[in-house]
Amino acid sequence: MLDNLQLLELAKKACDNAYAKYSNFHVGACALYESGNYYLGCNVENASYGLTLCAERNAMSNAIVAGEKSKLVKIAIFSKDRTNCMPCGACRQWMAEFAKDNNIQIILESEDSKCAVFTIEELLPYGFEL
Ligand code: THU
């Protein structure tokens, strides 16, 4: 199982591929599942701004595409440019969807800020469930 530093390193690599020509805010994510498999994502922007896809949701989508059936246990998010990228509300809701026991670690780092770790319960209290 990869550790937090390895996950951040992979997220940093994914960040290099970010397509962020409008915001110039580059983000990479690495989502680790209970199986030990991990999936990468980066943000993908669009001239129609609202169509932008965040790095975290891209990584979790890749897990689904690959047929991942186990639960999400950790997600590392690296942002190249400024401060740590706190995941947006939509990404938090996606994390909760795939999280093991609504209890995952969200690991953040950027070029300018050091590593910080949160749980999904801290970032999405009273999240929507069906
Ligand atoms: N972004 C992410 O990739 N993840 C987040 O959780 C927040 C925002 C991206 C989307 C957009 O390309 C850029 O950061 C600025 O909003």
What does it look like?
- The structure is a single chain.
- With 130 residues, the protein is α+β, with helices and mostly antiparallel strands.
- Helices cover 28% and strands 23% of the residues.
- A 5-stranded mixed beta sheet has the order 2-1-3-4-5.
- The model has no long low-confidence stretch (mean pLDDT 96).
- Tetrahydrodeoxyuridine binds next to helix 2.
- Tetrahydrodeoxyuridine binds at residues 20, 23, 25, 27, 43, 45, 52, 54-56, 85, 87-88, 91.
Name a few traits of the molecule.
alpha+beta; binds tetrahydrodeoxyuridine; 28% helix; 130 residues; five-stranded mixed β-sheet; single chain
Brief description of this entry?
The chain has 130 residues and is α+β, with helices and mostly antiparallel strands.
Topology record:
Elements: H1 4-15, E1 27-33, E2 38-42, H2 55-65, E3 72-79, H3 89-98, E4 105-110, E5 116-119, H4 120-123
Parallel strand pairs: 3-4
Antiparallel strand pairs: 1-2, 1-3, 4-5
The protein binds tetrahydrodeoxyuridine (THU).
* Alpha carbon gyration radius: 13 Å
User: Low-confidence spans: pLDDT under 50, at least 5 residues?
Assistant: none
Could you tell me which ligands this complex binds, including any ions or cofactors?
tetrahydrodeoxyuridine
Mean pLDDT across all amino acids: 96
Strand content: 15-25%
